[in-house]
Amino acid sequence: MSRLPWLRKLSRAGSSTRQLRRPDSRCFSTTTELPVLEHGQLYGDLPGFARSLGTACRVGEGGAGCFLISQLPPHINMLHQELLQSARDFFALPLAKKERVDYHLSPEFRGFMRQGAENTAGHVDEREQIEFGREEARPTAGREDPSSLYNRLR
Questions:
Q1: 102: three-class secondary structure by DSSP
Q2: Residues in a beta bridge with 129
Q3: Per residue in 29-78, pLDDT tens?
Q4: Which of 9, 74, 95, 145 is the right S-S partner for 33, CB 3.0 to 4.6 Å?
C-alpha cells in the first residue's frame, strides 16, 4: 500500500482497535483498520483511485471490504447527514410501523428486515436493516414466461 500515497489507513490512536469481523467468520476481513480514500483524487488520478479502491475492497488480501471517502464537497456531506437522520428516524419507529414495509411484502424482497431475519456464515445477524434497490415496472398479469422469476428478482 505504500505505492498508493493517498490511500491512508485510519486507526484509533490511543485505544485498542476494533476487529471488523467475528473471530470465527472466514468471510470477513481480519484487518482492524479502515482505508480512507480522498474524494479529490477521484478526479485527479482516476487509475490510481481505482487501484486503491480495489485494494481496499479485496477482503481476502488484507483489505477491509469497505472504506471511507474523505474530503467530500459540502453538498454531499449535507446529503449524508440527511440520509443518516432519515435512517435514525426510521429505525426509532415502533416495530409495527417498520413492518408496514416488510421485505415479505415485496416481490423483489426489498424492505424492512427485523433483527435476526438474516444470517451470515451460519451466525444470526443481530441487526435490523432495509433492503433496497432500483424500482422497476411491475410485469403485466398473464401467463408467466420462463424468465419471469429472474425479472422479478433483479
A1: strand
A2: 113
A3: 555 677 888 888 888 888 888 888 888 877 666 667 778 888 889 999 99
A4: 9
Q: Assess contact for 111 and 130: CB atoms under 8 A.
A: yes
Task: Read off the C-alpha cell for 16.
Answer: 485498542
The sign one gets for the Cα dihedral 112, 65, 134, 92 is positive
pLDDT number for residue 15: 33
| Overall residue count recorded for the chain in this entry | 154
Residue 21 identity: R
Q: In angstroms, what is the C-alpha Rg of the chain?
A: 20
Domain ranges of the chain: 7-70, 74-131
Q: Per-residue pLDDT tens for 75-134?
A: 999 999 999 999 999 999 999 999 999 988 887 888 999 988 888 888 888 889 998 887
- Angle at the Cα of 31 from the Cα atoms of 130 and 87, rounded to 5 degrees: 20
String of DSSP letters for 131-149:
E-----PPPPSSSPPTTHH
- Answer whether 29's CB lies under 8 Å from 63's CB: yes
What's the average model confidence in pLDDT over 5-20?
A: 38
